[in-house]
Recover the amino acids of this structure.
Protein backbone atom coordinates (compact mmCIF):
# COMPACT_ATOMS: atom_id res chain seq x y z
CA UNK A 1 0.00 0.00 0.00
CA UNK A 2 1.14 3.53 -0.74
CA UNK A 3 0.70 4.67 2.86
CA UNK A 4 3.14 1.99 4.03
CA UNK A 5 5.88 4.03 2.36
CA UNK A 6 5.34 6.94 4.77
CA UNK A 7 7.36 5.58 7.69
CA UNK A 8 9.54 8.69 7.79
CA UNK A 9 6.50 10.97 8.08
CA UNK A 10 5.03 8.87 10.88
CA UNK A 11 8.35 8.78 12.76
CA UNK A 12 8.79 12.54 12.38
CA UNK A 13 5.36 13.22 13.88
CA UNK A 14 5.87 10.84 16.79
CA UNK A 15 9.35 12.20 17.54
CA UNK A 16 8.18 15.82 17.42
CA UNK A 17 5.26 15.07 19.75
CA UNK A 18 7.51 13.21 22.18
CA UNK A 19 9.93 16.15 22.30
CA UNK A 20 7.07 18.56 23.07
CA UNK A 21 5.44 16.28 25.64
CA UNK A 22 2.35 15.77 23.48
CA UNK A 23 0.22 12.78 22.61
CA UNK A 24 -0.37 12.68 18.85
CA UNK A 25 -2.68 10.87 16.45
CA UNK A 26 -1.26 10.97 12.91
CA UNK A 27 -3.51 10.36 9.90
CA UNK A 28 -1.97 9.86 6.45
CA UNK A 29 -4.25 9.72 3.43
CA UNK A 30 -3.53 8.81 -0.19
CA UNK A 31 -6.32 9.06 -2.74
CA UNK A 32 -6.55 8.32 -6.45
CA UNK A 33 -9.80 9.21 -8.21
CA UNK A 34 -11.00 8.57 -11.74
CA UNK A 35 -14.03 10.22 -13.36
CA UNK A 36 -15.26 9.09 -16.77
CA UNK A 37 -18.32 10.33 -18.64
CA UNK A 38 -19.93 9.11 -21.87
CA UNK A 39 -22.61 11.17 -23.64
CA UNK A 40 -24.26 10.09 -26.88
CA UNK A 41 -21.84 7.19 -27.19
CA UNK A 42 -18.75 9.46 -27.13
CA UNK A 43 -16.26 10.32 -24.39
CA UNK A 44 -17.20 13.62 -22.77
CA UNK A 45 -14.72 13.58 -19.91
CA UNK A 46 -11.90 11.45 -18.58
CA UNK A 47 -9.77 12.50 -15.66
CA UNK A 48 -7.60 10.77 -13.09
CA UNK A 49 -6.29 12.74 -10.11
CA UNK A 50 -4.13 11.90 -7.12
CA UNK A 51 -3.72 13.62 -3.78
CA UNK A 52 -2.11 12.98 -0.42
CA UNK A 53 -2.09 14.66 2.95
CA UNK A 54 -1.26 14.35 6.63
CA UNK A 55 -3.35 15.41 9.64
CA UNK A 56 -2.00 15.60 13.20
CA UNK A 57 -4.23 15.70 16.26
CA UNK A 58 -2.31 16.52 19.45
CA UNK A 59 -3.24 16.45 23.12
CA UNK A 60 -1.31 18.27 25.86
CA UNK A 61 -0.83 16.76 29.30
CA UNK A 62 -3.83 18.72 30.63
CA UNK A 63 -6.04 17.52 27.77
CA UNK A 64 -5.92 20.67 25.64
CA UNK A 65 -6.30 19.85 21.95
CA UNK A 66 -4.74 21.14 18.73
CA UNK A 67 -4.95 20.08 15.11
CA UNK A 68 -3.05 20.80 11.89
CA UNK A 69 -3.06 19.33 8.38
CA UNK A 70 -0.76 19.62 5.37
CA UNK A 71 -0.48 18.22 1.85
CA UNK A 72 3.26 17.55 2.25
CA UNK A 73 4.41 14.22 3.70
CA UNK A 74 8.07 15.22 3.99
CA UNK A 75 9.35 14.60 7.56
CA UNK A 76 10.32 18.24 8.16
CA UNK A 77 6.88 19.45 7.08
CA UNK A 78 5.11 16.88 9.25
CA UNK A 79 7.21 17.80 12.30
CA UNK A 80 6.38 21.47 11.71
CA UNK A 81 2.68 20.58 11.59
CA UNK A 82 2.97 18.88 14.99
CA UNK A 83 4.60 22.00 16.42
CA UNK A 84 1.81 24.14 14.95
CA UNK A 85 -0.83 21.86 16.45
CA UNK A 86 1.02 22.04 19.77
CA UNK A 87 0.91 25.84 19.64
CA UNK A 88 -2.85 25.67 19.05
CA UNK A 89 -3.23 23.31 22.02
CA UNK A 90 -1.35 25.82 24.19
CA UNK A 91 -3.66 28.57 22.95
CA UNK A 92 -6.70 26.46 23.83
CA UNK A 93 -5.24 26.04 27.31
CA UNK A 94 -4.96 29.81 27.69
CA UNK A 95 -8.53 30.25 26.43
CA UNK A 96 -9.79 27.52 28.78
CA UNK A 97 -11.04 25.48 25.84
CA UNK A 98 -12.52 22.00 25.90
CA UNK A 99 -10.17 19.28 27.15
CA UNK A 100 -9.99 15.51 27.13
CA UNK A 101 -7.62 12.98 28.63
CA UNK A 102 -9.27 10.01 26.92
CA UNK A 103 -6.43 9.34 24.41
CA UNK A 104 -3.95 8.80 27.23
CA UNK A 105 -5.92 5.74 28.34
CA UNK A 106 -5.77 4.04 24.92
CA UNK A 107 -3.83 0.79 24.66
CA UNK A 108 -1.41 0.00 21.85
CA UNK A 109 -2.77 -2.12 19.04
CA UNK A 110 0.69 -2.50 17.50
CA UNK A 111 1.36 -2.47 13.76
CA UNK A 112 -1.55 -3.76 11.70
CA UNK A 113 -1.99 -3.87 7.93
CA UNK A 114 -5.41 -4.67 6.52
CA UNK A 115 -4.36 -5.89 3.11
CA UNK A 116 -6.49 -4.73 0.19
CA UNK A 117 -8.54 -7.37 -1.58
CA UNK A 118 -9.17 -5.49 -4.80
CA UNK A 119 -7.44 -4.29 -7.94
CA UNK A 120 -5.90 -0.85 -7.51
CA UNK A 121 -6.90 2.02 -9.72
CA UNK A 122 -3.34 2.20 -11.07
CA UNK A 123 -3.77 -1.25 -12.61
CA UNK A 124 -7.40 -0.81 -13.75
CA UNK A 125 -7.07 0.22 -17.39
CA UNK A 126 -8.88 3.41 -18.28
CA UNK A 127 -9.69 2.18 -21.79
CA UNK A 128 -11.28 -0.97 -20.41
CA UNK A 129 -13.46 1.13 -18.13
CA UNK A 130 -14.43 3.43 -21.01
CA UNK A 131 -15.43 0.39 -23.06
CA UNK A 132 -17.62 -0.76 -20.17
CA UNK A 133 -19.25 2.65 -19.95
CA UNK A 134 -20.04 2.70 -23.67
CA UNK A 135 -21.60 -0.75 -23.35
CA UNK A 136 -23.62 0.34 -20.33
CA UNK A 137 -24.92 3.38 -22.13
CA UNK A 138 -25.76 1.41 -25.26
CA UNK A 139 -27.81 -1.00 -23.13
CA UNK A 140 -29.73 1.88 -21.56
CA UNK A 141 -30.31 3.61 -24.91
CA UNK A 142 -31.62 0.38 -26.42
CA UNK A 143 -34.23 0.25 -23.66
CA UNK A 144 -35.15 3.94 -23.93
CA UNK A 145 -34.23 5.02 -27.48
CA UNK A 146 -36.17 8.30 -27.31
CA UNK A 147 -34.08 9.66 -24.44
CA UNK A 148 -30.70 11.34 -24.21
CA UNK A 149 -28.40 9.38 -21.91
CA UNK A 150 -25.33 10.55 -20.05
CA UNK A 151 -23.36 7.84 -18.24
CA UNK A 152 -20.72 8.56 -15.58
CA UNK A 153 -18.30 6.47 -13.56
CA UNK A 154 -16.54 7.64 -10.41
CA UNK A 155 -13.88 5.38 -8.88
CA UNK A 156 -12.01 6.25 -5.67
CA UNK A 157 -8.98 4.27 -4.51
CA UNK A 158 -8.32 5.62 -1.00
CA UNK A 159 -5.80 4.49 1.60
CA UNK A 160 -5.35 5.53 5.22
CA UNK A 161 -2.66 5.06 7.82
CA UNK A 162 -3.28 6.05 11.42
CA UNK A 163 -0.54 6.02 14.06
CA UNK A 164 -0.69 7.07 17.71
CA UNK A 165 1.77 7.85 20.46
CA UNK A 166 0.76 4.64 22.28
CA UNK A 167 2.30 2.53 19.48
CA UNK A 168 -0.81 1.79 17.42
CA UNK A 169 -0.10 1.97 13.67
CA UNK A 170 -2.75 0.71 11.22
CA UNK A 171 -3.02 0.83 7.42
CA UNK A 172 -6.26 0.17 5.52
CA UNK A 173 -8.13 1.13 2.37
CA UNK A 174 -11.63 2.44 1.62
CA UNK A 175 -12.24 1.85 -2.12
CA UNK A 176 -15.56 2.73 -3.72
CA UNK A 177 -17.13 3.14 -7.14
CA UNK A 178 -20.44 4.36 -8.55
CA UNK A 179 -22.09 4.27 -11.97
CA UNK A 180 -24.78 6.79 -12.86
CA UNK A 181 -27.15 7.15 -15.83
CA UNK A 182 -28.77 10.56 -16.35
CA UNK A 183 -31.78 10.52 -18.67
CA UNK A 184 -33.36 13.51 -20.44
CA UNK A 185 -36.49 13.50 -22.57
CA UNK A 186 -39.82 15.17 -23.21
CA UNK A 187 -43.37 14.52 -22.09
CA UNK A 188 -45.53 16.84 -24.12
CA UNK A 189 -44.02 20.30 -23.88
CA UNK A 190 -42.08 19.54 -20.71
CA UNK A 191 -38.42 18.55 -20.45
CA UNK A 192 -38.10 15.73 -17.93
CA UNK A 193 -35.06 14.25 -16.24
CA UNK A 194 -34.33 11.17 -14.19
CA UNK A 195 -31.30 9.29 -12.95
CA UNK A 196 -30.38 5.82 -11.77
CA UNK A 197 -27.20 4.71 -10.05
CA UNK A 198 -25.46 1.69 -8.55
CA UNK A 199 -22.49 1.65 -6.23
CA UNK A 200 -20.19 -0.76 -4.47
CA UNK A 201 -16.97 -0.81 -2.51
CA UNK A 202 -14.75 -2.46 -5.14
CA UNK A 203 -14.35 -2.67 -8.88
CA UNK A 204 -12.74 -5.00 -11.40
CA UNK A 205 -10.70 -4.47 -14.56
CA UNK A 206 -12.84 -6.39 -17.03
CA UNK A 207 -15.51 -4.80 -19.19
CA UNK A 208 -17.51 -7.77 -20.37
CA UNK A 209 -20.70 -5.88 -19.58
CA UNK A 210 -22.53 -3.60 -17.20
CA UNK A 211 -25.72 -4.28 -15.35
CA UNK A 212 -28.31 -1.63 -16.17
CA UNK A 213 -29.75 -0.01 -13.02
CA UNK A 214 -33.39 -0.92 -12.65
CA UNK A 215 -36.20 1.34 -11.53
CA UNK A 216 -35.29 4.46 -13.55
CA UNK A 217 -38.38 6.47 -14.36
CA UNK A 218 -39.28 9.86 -15.74
CA UNK A 219 -41.53 12.47 -14.26
CA UNK A 220 -42.09 16.18 -14.70
CA UNK A 221 -40.14 18.61 -12.62
CA UNK A 222 -37.06 17.71 -10.65
CA UNK A 223 -34.93 14.70 -11.49
CA UNK A 224 -35.37 11.52 -9.51
CA UNK A 225 -32.78 9.21 -8.05
CA UNK A 226 -33.60 5.53 -8.37
CA UNK A 227 -31.70 2.80 -6.57
CA UNK A 228 -33.67 -0.14 -7.95
CA UNK A 229 -32.38 -3.52 -6.85
CA UNK A 230 -28.72 -2.41 -7.00
CA UNK A 231 -27.48 -5.03 -9.47
CA UNK A 232 -23.74 -5.80 -9.54
CA UNK A 233 -21.45 -3.12 -10.88
CA UNK A 234 -18.72 -4.40 -13.16
CA UNK A 235 -15.94 -2.27 -14.68
Amino acid sequence: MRVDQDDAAIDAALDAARTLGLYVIVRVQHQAERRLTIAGGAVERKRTSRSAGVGVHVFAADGSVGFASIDDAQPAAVAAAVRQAGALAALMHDLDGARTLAPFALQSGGRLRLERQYQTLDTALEQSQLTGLVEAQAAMRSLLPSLQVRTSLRVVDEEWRIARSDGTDISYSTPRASLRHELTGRIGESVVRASASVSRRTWGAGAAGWAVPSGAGLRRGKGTRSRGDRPPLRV
